[in-house]
Design goal:
The structure is a homodimer of 224-residue chains. Chain A is built from twelve helices and three strands. With 224 residues, chain A is mostly helical. In chain A, a hairpin with a 2-residue loop joins β1 and β2. The radius of gyration of chain A is 21 Å and the shape is globular.
């Protein structure tokens, strides 16, 4: 795997190959790394995806577009796209990072992919960047549907509170029991200005919080 | 104030004036409102500002760029820019919203400005959108400096935890006393995997949380 192969896979040839090289330097390798390009690429990626969804789903509400975008630009999806491009193999990373499996780590791959997208933008401009991003995400974009999204109860609660002009909820989670390999957690959902407290239980922080949010939403909608 | 004046102030003339019209319809006015354009404009704005900062501050780290962008695209800054454009006067809003001062409300003005930016992008493409955004933000961009940023302790704590691969903190806040016009709050900062609890007090949620974050950061850095 070489930078030559990667440019072929991206269907984009850099005028300044130094930009692509820089996009593939993790911060564990040195000060001259890809963090600034990642920052730029993250912005480019979010906007290109927003634009695509805005046009493709012309009759969908903003909330659906936001959720679809979140499902596409999350770390796991980016790493799925970065892996077959062989980005892990050409990444410059520190020795310690390499020993601990850094080349396979989703966060490093996702960040490097964003940096590559940023580098394409700097090198070729917005039109080329949009073309490359759409091609990279083509398979994911093709199967995307707002109806397939399982909306997180925390998101639904947040949207409900925002629509009614309320402040956002705060969550606290405590481990309440279970074996070390199988803990249980209890989450409390606290909503500013609402005296009732809602709680949820589950095998992870996330699931306990989701249950608390689901109960809060049911409780508040029942009040309305 | 008319849409004609607004186009003059934006230094942009719409091919499809219907897009500008749509960008100025708040959801309280009807189903055909500006929420989708706001979604698109938010993405465009964030990217144009990211691009500007990336180029202007070529030797600044990603964290500085992120904080500078956050200071520019926050609601208050957007409303400051929207007000002299006269967006409040030409906004279509529901009668109830109008009676409660909606035309002066920062959130409505900020969202409408984002929708206008989205409309410019749809109508004129990325180059025109970038030109209009840079002109709108020119005064704010000119005085921006990473050294002027007072970094929020919550942000610093979050960055510290992310760098050390830890989970993000959770905050809870309770009102603990004070007169109705002058309440006091106590915040607790809970960090997953850290048994110590850090607390802070202050006259608002935000200030109490900031103090708790400052203490948590001091405590954890002391451990390291």
């Amino acid at each position: 795997m070489t930078l030559e192969n990667l440019q072929h896979s991206l269907d984009y040839r850099f005028d300044d190959a130094g930009l692509l090289h820089r996009a593939l330097v993790h911060r564990s390798y040195g000060r001259e790394n890809n963090e600034r390009l990642e920052y730029l690429g993250d912005g480019a990626l979010n906007f290109v995806i927003a634009d695509f969804l805005f046009r493709k789903f012309a009759h969908r509400a903003e909330g659906d577009l936001t959720r679809m975008r979140a499902s596409l630009v999350r770390r796991e999806t980016l790493a799925e796209i970065a892996r077959p491009l062989g980005i892990g193999a050409v990444l410059s990373i520190g020795a310690g990072e390499a020993r601990s499996g850094g080349r396979q780590r989703a966060s490093l791959l996702a960040n490097a992919l964003e940096a590559v997208i940023g580098a394409v933008y700097v090198d070729g401009g917005f039109g080329e960047c949009r073309r490359v991003v759409r091609a990279l995400f083509a398979r994911h974009l093709a199967v995307l549907s707002p109806d397939h999204l399982d909306i997180d109860p925390k998101t639904r609660l947040q949207e409900f509170l925002q629509k009614s002009g309320r402040e956002l909820p705060e969550y606290t989670v405590e481990k309440t029991g279970g074996e070390p390999h199988c803990p249980t957690f209890e989450a409390r959902c606290i909503i500013p200005g609402v005296s009732r407290r809602f709680s949820g239980e589950g095998p992870s922080h996330r699931i306990a919080e989701q249950q608390a949010a689901r109960r809060a939403l049911a409780g508040l909608q029942g009040d309305g």
